[in-house]
């Protein structure tokens, strides 16, 4: 197979990926080429004339095809996603952790020393593991209804050397009620939004991690009710644009007296926090 320069390989890939609708085509191309070559992204930028030859060319072409034609998320293709200061292994068993979810970790960082924290719907373990990494004094548990997701969360915990327990449960059913704080990024997309989701999301990420009934609140409603029955003094729930008002009302009605919505970097009310 003929060689090609890093610059030309990136140009071609950016065009193909961009034409398929990705809004991050340049970054996607760099991440895929760095993965194919087994180098850091920075190495591509410092040496754009470097020639790529042999098997990595074919590997890269295949990755670009899977991204542009198959719409596979880059994080699944490279089997990794950075979240705060940790790298998580990810695949189609779990949602790709999103930057806006880091807000939940930031809220957890304010908890008192030794607090017992439950991350409901932990997926890859992103929130639970990032929190434990930054606050080793906290006692952190992650739960999920998906046994497949929990398998991967446990792999991540082992790889990161973090002591977080992962348990299978439908919300808080069958779990202890002895938590100081409950954090959750549950599924919250309304059924009516399904058709407008990008193909890399709806075609590849687990439906269980995304869709939650007609108004997107089918998991959030019972989660609030269950959290209210527990000892948790703090409840923080991530939600979608436009849901903060309704969720804040539900959290207040469940007995959390101080309720506030926290905005993400895009200015969207992204997390509702209730305290009592
Ligand atoms: C939006 S994903 C969040 C994953 C991870 N916390 C993150 O932020 O990247 C929602 C997660 O909730 C889980 N889930 C859905 N319904 C659930 C339920 N009734 N009880 C527990 N977990 C649930 C899904 O399996 C999925 O892993």
Describe this structure in words.
The protein has 276 residues and is of the alpha/beta class. Helix content is 39%, strand content 17%. It is elongated. The longest helix is centred in the N-terminal third of the chain and has 14 residues, at 6-19. The mean pLDDT is 97. The chain has a 7-stranded mixed beta sheet with strand order 7-6-5-8-9-11-10, sandwiched between helices. It has a two-stranded antiparallel ribbon with strand order 1-2. It has a two-stranded antiparallel ribbon with strand order 3-4. α1 crosses α2 and α1 (6-19) runs parallel beside α4. It is built from 11 helices and 11 strands. It has 2 domains: 4-70, Helicase, Ruva Protein, domain 3; 83-275, Vaccinia Virus protein VP39 (Rossmann fold). S-adenosylmethionine (SAM) binds next to α7 and β6.
- Beta-strand content estimate: 15-25%
Overall pLDDT confidence? 97
Structural class: alpha/beta
Secondary structure tally: strands = 11
Note the topology:
Layout: E1 4-5, H1 6-19, H2 25-37, H3 41-46, E2 51-52, H4 55-68, H5 74-78, E3 81-83, E4 86-88, H6 102-109, E5 116-120, H7 126-134, E6 139-144, H8 147-160, E7 165-168, E8 181-184, H9 199-202, H10 220-229, E9 234-238, H11 244-253, E10 258-263, E11 269-275
Helix pairs in contact: 1-2, 1-4, 2-4, 6-7
The structure holds S-adenosylmethionine.
S-adenosylmethionine is lined by residues 94-95, 97, 101, 120-124, 126-127, 143-146, 149, 170-171, 185-187, 208-209, 219.
